[in-house]
Amino acid sequence: MKRYTTYLFDFDYTLADSSKGIVLCFRHVLNLHGYTGITDEEIKRTIGKTLEESFSILTEVTDADTLAAYKKEYVKAADQHMTVNTFLFPETLSVLTQLKKDGARIGIISTKYRYRIMELLSQKLPAQFLDIIVGGEDVKTPKPSPEGLLFAIEHLSVPKEETLYIGDSTVDAETAQAAGVDFMGVLHGATTRSELEAYPHVGIAPDLTLLTE
Length: 213
What we know:
Blueprint: E1 6-9, E2 16-17, H1 19-32, H2 40-44, H3 51-59, H4 64-81, E3 87-88, H5 92-101, E4 105-109, H6 114-121, E5 132-134, H7 147-156, E6 163-167, H8 170-179, E7 182-186, H9 193-197, E8 203-205
Parallel strand pairs: 1-4, 1-6, 4-5, 6-7, 7-8
Antiparallel strand pairs: 2-3
């Protein structure tokens, strides 16, 4: 694969498996409001979208105030359960370490809150290892808007053609396309290879190791 100077990653289902915590928190809110027929797989299929979008998909609720209330309940549950139920994929640390050793800049662009990402990664990576983290609280328009990705590129002062965005979902693929940067899909999540292949990409791989091969 072509070498880039900057590698920007999605978080959930790309660098880490937080599905256990996500399902637990969604299940908590859904059960509170009587939604008992929703499967874990249906919840996992919404990972990568905003909480409001996910709850709307799962419950068919469209009222903004109701969705905001569900989000607030989710965040409260996540403060207790998310980090302890989130695990980096086996190759994540070695791939990130090798890219950094090779002189690349590394960042994360996610709909997940930045503080929650930092809470986990501060236990796994040296301080200042990542060059930038853009979380859901840092943008006005979430992915697939390119806002967060373009902000990172501008902040790091790197050319788009030297930047690769890596993610697991069609939302990530759309984000890269909208930003005008190359995209690599990783098959850690619930999105299939054929779904990712519908978007421009430089590679689709079972895991992150392709980045250092």
